[in-house]
Amino acid sequence: MKTNKFLSLLFVASFVLFSCQDQSSTKSIDDGVIVNPETNEISLSNTTDEAVTLTYAFKKGVKVENVYTINMEYEMMGQKMPSGIIMEGSFEILDVDSEGSADIKYAITSMKMDMAAQGLNFDSKDDKYKSNLQFAPLYKIIDKSIITKIKNNGEVLGADYSEIMAEMGDEFEALKPQFEQNVNQFSQSSFPFLTDKPVKAGDKYEGDVIDQSISGINVKTANAYTVRSISEDKSKVILEMDATMELNVVEALMGMEVSMNEGTIKGWLLLDLSQGLVVKSALKSTLDFTTEMQGQKNDMVIVTDMIMNIK
Prior knowledge:
The chain is mainly beta.
């Protein structure tokens, strides 16, 4: 069903939380953080070589808005199909307990999708889409909150998405399991896992492992991080991410077998530990897999450029 494919793509892409803000020239975006707009490389002007213990210093009441841009390109049977998603969202730290864990509320406030090659376009700000039943589930999640409890090392303790589940109701019961999986993935991937051992620039450590199930396919993502640099005041850290993804097909999709050739996510993330925020990231994922049905094989490659920044 076209709507289900559309929503699966949206949920997988959107709940990883990536965003973009254009820069016209190389400049400092925040207290010594420098980004080159041509290469999208990032650096800190003042750094320390001292070892530090990484922890999110969550502060109750911190609230920010985000703009998320995700550009994808699908290549199948020699044909390339570009697509894009732009989302705006709000993020608020509701409470912080005595151990430093935070209750964090996130909501998508708008979304726009350009998938001309797939025959799909959508803009939640344009009223003409409201009469199209295909997009009804999307309108039901806009401005609805997900509340996640996260430890100060990035570990997820729980997620409450009951408001969205109630809004979707029985009408979209078939979509709920997929949505729950992607909300759980969102909760796990919102904050990079921080090691409890002191680290300095150049150190590497293993992160968390995220499990997700999509239409009978289990996707396991193992994250690893390298500390690229630490600001002199130890409030900001640039982490390099190097993740690998593995597929495990639980059941054949209409008789189709799927095998993974390559699954990676690489890039960097800028953390503001003093506020408990990931303020910018630039990541690229590559999914290269082969499908086989009735003896016929097809290769598919999905490349996604994902850049994140707080407004």
